[in-house]
Design brief:
With 223 residues, this protein is α/β, with parallel strands linked by helices. It has a single domain (14-215), classed as Spore Coat Polysaccharide Biosynthesis Protein SpsA, Chain A. It is 30% helix and 20% strand. Strands 5-4-1-6-8-7-9 form a 7-stranded mixed sheet, with helices on both faces. Helix 2 (86-100) packs across helix 4 (157-165).
């Protein structure tokens, strides 16, 4: 395991976006990102890791934005009806970046239930898409791709809107593959950095992983 790092000056300006619009049906509903992990919300852990890597971080979520006021950032809602899922969230933040941050050409997305994302995520994804000359890159670990943990060119926004408004597939993986998305792998040992909390059993496992990181001196940079 290497030394934790953040985005380098060589990386282009990048907007971070936490996708927190999930319905959390397997946890009884509500905002999964606001569930506690340790003494803080899941969202706190994501912000701690993502913020140093990005120029700005926003939250993608629907409903009353006041519930995220403690994080002091812009909340960007979906503008496609019918709960379009993570792909709708990606579109929303790409379009927000185009309008409000025209100086930023890239958006990195991370689900709000993924508390252990690598501290060199943005740099690693940029390196991967540069090697492949691709307009996007997705994270992978343990032989699995995690398409919602991705880096996207803002120029992809119109094509994505066309897909969603035409009733096309709402699969992030299918859309990412269609863009020629680069795949960037991180080690899944001693724990998967893209572990996500889907239910109460996962939350228990996340507590165990957090104790390993906090109390056993393990580096949590796994690139």
């Amino acid at each position: 395991m290497g030394t934790a790092s953040i985005a380098t000056p060589a990386d282009p300006p990048t907007l971070g976006a936490v996708l927190a619009g999930g319905l959390a049906r397997r946890m009884g509903g509500g905002d999964k990102a606001l569930r506690p992990l340790g003494r803080r919300a899941l969202l706190d852990h994501v912000f701690e890791r993502l913020t140093p890597q990005c120029d700005t971080v926003v939250i993608n979520a629907n409903g009353d934005p006041a519930r995220f006021s403690a994080w002091g950032c812009v909340v960007v809602p979906d503008d496609i009806a019918g709960h379009p899922g993570p792909l709708g969230g990606i579109l929303a933040v790409l379009e927000w970046a185009h309008v409000h941050r025209p100086d930023v050409g890239w958006v990195v997305t991370v689900p709000g239930d993924t508390p252990f994302v690598p501290r060199d995520l943005v740099h690693g994804l940029h390196a991967g898409r540069e090697r492949s000359s691709a307009p996007a890159a997705c994270a992978a670990s343990g032989g699995r791709i995690h398409p919602a943990v991705g880096l996207w060119s803002v120029h992809l926004r119109q094509g994505l809107r066309d897909v969603l408004t035409a009733g096309g597939s709402r699969s992030v993986h299918a859309w990412a593959q269609a863009q020629g998305c680069a795949r960037v792998a991180w080690s899944a040992e001693p724990g998967d950095p893209f572990f996500n909390v889907n239910d109460t059993a996962d939350l228990v496992e996340a507590e165990r992983l957090l104790r390993l990181i906090n109390h056993e001196g393990l580096s949590d940079d796994r690139a």
